[in-house]
What does this fold into?
Amino acid sequence: MSESEQSGRRAFLGATAAAAAAGLGFVALAPGMQLIKFAEAKAGMAGASSKVRWGMLIDTTRCATGCTDCVTACATENAIDPGSGRPGQSSQWIRKIELKEQSTGREISLPMMCQHCADPPCVDVCPTGASFKRADGIVLVDRHTCIGCRYCMMACPYKARSFVHETLTQQNPEVPRGKGCVESCTLCVQRVDKGQEPACVEACSKGDHTAMLFGDLNNPTSEIARRIATTASSQVRADLRLDPGVRYQGI
It folds into this structure.
């Protein structure tokens, strides 16, 4: 080994030891895992606390049929072009669906996205660990380790994930996306980590619809926790016992 290679190796080991001492939680589970942990820590993921569980409450009685403010805001914030890609292969992190109750004929409209489950099946089936859940409950995909197998897409009962088929341009630097990777709603983690609301929630509020409420489900004094405690709400496919972080009123 040359002197320059030895110097580089010592620098790497030194950085690893320093990061471990700083509490970054290095665990050598597999080749490259340390680098992944280091990247996550740099991205602010080390700051995610298990004391918090971010979630969303959606009031379907306030969600108007035909309104797509939340869908548009999501596409704008995350630089998603719904019209790009081949037919039927465009990315859409949030979509509006219409439901009709068979017995009464009552119709409701609601936004559907990744439900950020406490026990996410997408994480269970991922062979590389690319699909993972943060300590605060946000479910994400690491595009650097995603191999595009799409097992997670098949495992998701909410059809919340999509696959990037085409090369992407004009991306939001805070929301890296890549061809050959699976992606889905991130609850606008880049905004949440700055103390802001997801773009869809902000747009719904600005549109004076107030159908979407975001907050800490674990904090009994938060508005979302108080609403859930006092008003009936449902989890989509509660029978699967995945404990989604997204709850709905009026369904």
Observations:
- Residues 49-249 form a domain with the Alpha-Beta Plaits fold (CATH 3.30.70.20).
- Strands lie at 54-59, 94-100, 107-113, 131-133, 139-141, 162-163, 182-183, 212-216, 246-249.
- The longest strand covers residues 94-100.
